[in-house]
Automatic annotation (TrEMBL):
Membrane spanning residue stretches: 21-51, 90-108, 129-151, 163-181, 214-239, 251-269
Protein name as annotated: Integral membrane protein
Taxonomic classification: Bacteria, Bacillati, Actinomycetota, Actinomycetes, Kitasatosporales
InterPro entries: DUF6350 (IPR045931), GPCR_STE2 (IPR000366)
Organism for this UniProt entry: Streptomyces halstedii
GO CC terms of this entry: membrane
Highest taxon in the source lineage: Bacteria
Length: 361
């Protein structure tokens, strides 16, 4: 009888342990499925383009290697192109930012859904956020390692060091963001290692309101800056429409190849917007190791490949009035930032009620 009572008393603990194990196993599977969905989407797109090509350069194995390489590149992994005209391996490290949207969104959603679903199954009413984050990340990164091993003997293998940083770090941070969002975005776990004064300041409602206003203003300023950069790229492409068309038609002679070039150009549009925003800010952007394009001058002689987006690169030599006009982009971003800050600092125009004090801005 005593033995039966002992087993009965232990059953809640056993149930709790099994529930936690089931939660972590479910999170692991979600991470694996998220990675598989992203890989599958890119693979389907590449295979459709390969099938529609009139004269493919390789078989289905080569197309699969391209798909796996693109998927790894979307996570920040550096690829090595072994088949080059010079015979020397060449790195492929520029990540098409638009290509990262789907894989990272799937990883974010896996972390968020793993915490939201099944919350009542945990005996304590909550589950370990760290455990869920680790389980989802482990499932996702297991697929990353498998794909990297598959692509090791292809023409686009991944650099091993880049699989740890930034690829693995990016995955863990995105999954952690999803877990954090599902819990209501609490600041306590984020600031657990911060000094006590910082934690006390964040606990004040007025400080949190000011921090949220600052983040909104910063987000609006960055959005304006990137939007202005995209506008600069669009204007430059229209200005050089002839060169863009010639480059587009030269790279591909049939419709399937032109679709590939178009999709690749679209994937690099966010990159071009960032480069244009940096150009308007003044520092500019580098082309190769000895060339820098700024509004004041464009020096060096970079060996640029034939690509439609590169037609937007300014001409070499000193900058002209058209180049100097790009400084309007950061000025507009500054005005937007000031506008959002002023609206938060003085909620009611002409009234001191709710207005920030001296030094608040």
């Amino acid at each position: 009888m005593a033995r039966v009572t002992q087993v009965t008393e232990r059953s809640p603990m056993l149930s709790a342990g099994r529930s936690r194990s089931a939660v972590l196993a479910s999170a692991f599977v979600r991470g694996t499925c998220a990675a598989g969905l992203g890989l599958g989407a890119i693979t389907v797109l590449v295979m459709v383009l390969w099938i529609s090509s009139s004269s493919p350069d390789s078989g289905p194995g080569g197309a699969l290697h391209v798909a796996t390489g693109l998927w790894l590149l979307a996570h920040g992994a550096e690829l090595v192109r072994t088949e080059t005209l010079s015979g020397h391996p060449a790195p492929v490290a520029t990540v098409p930012l638009l290509l990262t949207v789907l894989p990272l969104w799937l990883a974010y959603r896996a972390g968020r859904d793993s915490t939201e679903s099944g919350g009542d199954e945990d005996p304590a009413g909550r589950r370990s956020a760290v455990g869920v984050c680790c389980a989802v990340s482990a499932g996702y990164l297991l697929v990353v390692l498998g794909v990297a091993a598959y692509a090791r003997n292809s023409g686009l293998p991944a650099e091993r060091a880049s699989l740890g940083f930034p690829a693995a770090v990016v995955v863990v941070l995105v999954v952690a963001a999803g877990v954090w969002a599902s819990r209501g975005r609490p600041w306590g776990p984020v600031l657990a290692w911060a000094p006590l004064r910082v934690q006390e300041a964040v606990a004040r409602a007025r400080f949190r309101a000011g921090l949220e206003a600052a983040l909104r203003a910063a987000a609006a300023g960055v959005a304006m800056l990137l939007g202005g950069g995209a506008l600069l790229v669009a204007v430059a492409l229209v200005w050089q429409a002839g060169e863009v068309q010639e480059s587009f038609l030269t790279l591909a002679g049939h419709w399937a190849g032109r679709i590939c070039v178009l999709l690749l150009a679209l994937a690099f549009v966010p990159n071009a917007a960032m480069w244009a925003a940096s150009y308007g800010l003044g520092p500019g952007f580098a082309l190769g190791t000895a060339s820098t394009a700024t509004p004041l001058t464009f020096g060096g002689h970079p060996a640029l490949p034939d690509f439609p987006l590169l037609a937007a690169v300014p001409a070499q030599g000193p900058g002209t009035a058209a180049n100097w006009a790009s400084v309007a982009v950061p000025l507009a971003a500054g005005l937007v930032l000031a506008r959002f800050t002023a609206r938060a600092a003085v909620p009611v125009s002409g009234s001191r009620e709710g207005a920030w004090g001296a030094g608040g801005t």
